[in-house]
Amino acid sequence: MEKPVLFEIKEGIAMITLNRPEKRNAINRALLIHLYNALDEVSNNDKIRVAVITGNGKSFCAGIDLSVIKTENLFDPRGDGKDLPDIIEACKKPIIGAINGHAITGGFEIALNCDFLIASERASFADTHAKVGIHPGWGMTQLLQQAVGLRMAKQMSFTCQFMSAEKALQCGLVNEMVPHEELISRAKQISMEICAVNQEMLGVVKDLIKYKNRATLQDAFAHERKGFRTFVEKFLRPW
């Protein structure tokens, strides 16, 4: 039986592939357990510098598998009280979403929790929480408006209509749109560029960017300047 998530490490890059193509990579308990374990490995393995999440087949992820929502524990699949936002928040390494097809509702939330997205020309995005009657829980109402702006987020979430990869690029939801056959190679190329930078300072920069999400601009600016003064005192000669 195929694993619901494929995991490969090569040259500092972890490739995480959602692997239920016959179900459009819909989320069940086994997929979540394997995904969470893979993300923990990214966090804990010093050989990994960056991770890429993508999907096998025509979809990135179609969201929760509605056929198992009442029979499987999808909200605490490992029994440790942690779910997707907790595990990604704990990861200090960059996570790139390589969106190969449909990213719907919970699948869209997986994408939104990545640091940034590269999309195939065949990708599309939809928030259908209001359509299927499921409460958002992985950040849809917060992360989507952060990505595309308040009014566009409202339109997407209120209408539950799909956004194309081209429109997603225009709205700033994705960083790049590439030909479908070039998606993984482009994601790996960006990953290699990330692997080549100073990893300690990369972690610092990522934390500083995240800090802004829980602070005012004034506080975040002061926090960055405080860190810079500490850096100067530790590594450079006073002038």
How would you describe this protein?
With 239 residues, the chain is α/β, with parallel strands linked by helices. It folds into two domains: 191 residues, Alpha-Beta Complex (2-enoyl-CoA Hydratase, Chain A, domain 1); 37 residues, no CATH class. It contains ten helices and ten strands. The strands form two sheets. A six-stranded mixed sheet has the order 1-2-3-5-7-10, with helices on both faces. Strands 4-6-8-9 form a four-stranded mixed sheet. The longest helix is centred in the C-terminal third of the chain and has 19 residues. It starts with a strand and ends with a helix. The mean pLDDT is 95.
Q: Which properties best describe this structure?
A:
239 residues; alpha/beta; 2-enoyl-CoA Hydratase, Chain A, domain 1; 2 domains; six-stranded mixed β-sheet; four-stranded mixed β-sheet; 10 strands; globular
